[in-house]
Amino acid sequence: MKQLVVLCILSLVFAVGAWGTVIPNFVSVTPIGGGLYQWEYQFELANDQTAVSGAQPPGGMVNGANFASFTTIYDFYGYVSCSSNNPVAGCAPHLLGSTPIGVDLVDPPFKVDDPYLTNVTWWYLAGNPAPIVGPQDLGRFYVVTTSNEKSIVSYTTSGTYSGTDPNLLGSPVANGGLTTGGSVPEPVTLALTGIGLLALGLIRRRARIVR
User: Fold this and answer.
1) What domains appear along the chain, each with residue ranges and CATH number?
2) For 21-44, how does the pLDDT look when each residue is reduced to its tens digit (9 = 90+)?
3) pTM value > 0.85
4) How far apart, in Å, are the Cα atoms of 63 and each of 88, 113, 139, 172, 190?
């Protein structure tokens, strides 16, 4: 069976989209209390694509024909948890994100996966035999982190071709693009945080001396 690999990117500053099996459109990042922030995405299944249920894809390079359709967004700094309002979607964090065979994150315009930052993969849970045929809004998908700083990050998706080309019908599809995601805080932010912690330490030390 032929494998269709499509890589199309259209980028804007902090609002980036791409054609793909599933397009994770960034919606917002909002504070939810306790120093935590929720990243919200709207997942859109493309017109000539189908999502199929199956086994959870492992971290690393994945043969999409052997696992459920999935989408991975890379490099969330300060990752805490993931979820979705779609009851047939599972999610899991990986340092080595699930990446479909046929996509190489070292190739432009992708950003190389940071091995120290958490990637999040959502997949179509097994036990749901009916495929989801695009175009279709798949719902809202969430990541909770300790940072609200935005950055352009990579995403990859794996699904099944259901377009008009009979030679490719039913073939696994691997594609991806760029979207808005979390980033490592800027050096200035880290410096200010460090200064604040140092000042707090000095105040506490002085208080102990006074007593």
Assistant:
1) 7-185 (2.60.40)
2) 899 999 999 999 999 999 999 999
3) no
4) 21, 18, 25, 9, 39
